[in-house]
């Protein structure tokens, strides 16, 4: 992607909890830019905080030159001109400012209007789908690519389904994924920014349903056997643990990708179910109690205020205002296992029962602040380096739709987010 812009990448919100780790990941990946170099800058509203982020990154990575070689741009969500100025200087803006429902749209608007591509790591379906509804046509006119959910939500899930489809060598018709998160001796937790996004999202389900009606979509055709319904809590024979439906954006993102592949590329759509493994019966009891409290409190403004004020208490320590320590992150990992079924090339999906099964897996380091920056940065580098492999026209895309024909999976494999076949396709 040749560009006359000052910077290949600008990280907006670089001083936020996630943003600081994105800064470090970009600094590790500069040799992967066009022609072996990456021109980049960081942006936010406080020069002092941004300088501290560069100092921390320089110390962590042993790269003192970061403090003088990386430019700082001042940009504020409440200042449209500052966002426009930032966007005019960037080929791609990586936006790390959440909750996106409050802070995401001004950045996308500035990017689209000023010709900068935009990548975010939102796990908020209402925001992601709203941006598609409102900006897809303008982005297409401007030749701008807006790719949402390029972090843990939802690159492992979305690209994992695509990887499974490629490995089946037939017609993949249904996939169920099971997420497992592993903690080290220091335990694990998540910064409460994710908690806040969940609170606002679950309290606003009616508006999400109304938003989806505006698209006027027809249901995707069901190919093969219809995927089975699961309970709110169930014992999974696949992973030998109790599991619950995954509450993040993965189902929404994967479905949008499958719709794009069906409508634009005439490919058979894949049904998808996303679940999270929670362990044994003690974990189930704790989860059910926390879930009951959450649902009771999230319906009322007073309850939502309590949930946001005391995330650690209501989540049994899983969400905190401080976020995980580096020691906790280094000891944590994730795996997402995909159980797929479909048809061999000699079978008719409209006539026969599925005759093939496959199991694949995506695994990697700590999901929120190690794997997410890796996924976001590699998505950006792919967009920079492979313009002929992405969709021909601009628009608002899911990762799977944008990177379907690129080398993103191979790039992620080289950076520790690994895609592999566990059980080869069987007839």
Automatic annotation (TrEMBL):
Pfam families, A to Z: Sacchrp_dh_NADP
Top-rank lineage group of the source organism: Eukaryota
GO cellular component, one term: lipid droplet
A GO biological process held by the record: glycolipid biosynthetic process
InterPro entries, per the entry: NAD(P)-bd_dom_sf (IPR036291), Saccharopine_DH-like_oxidrdct (IPR051276), Sacchrp_dh_NADP-bd (IPR005097)
Similarity remark: Belongs to the saccharopine dehydrogenase family.
Name of this protein: Saccharopine dehydrogenase-like oxidoreductase
Protein's organism: Polypterus senegalus
Gene (UniProt): Sccpdh
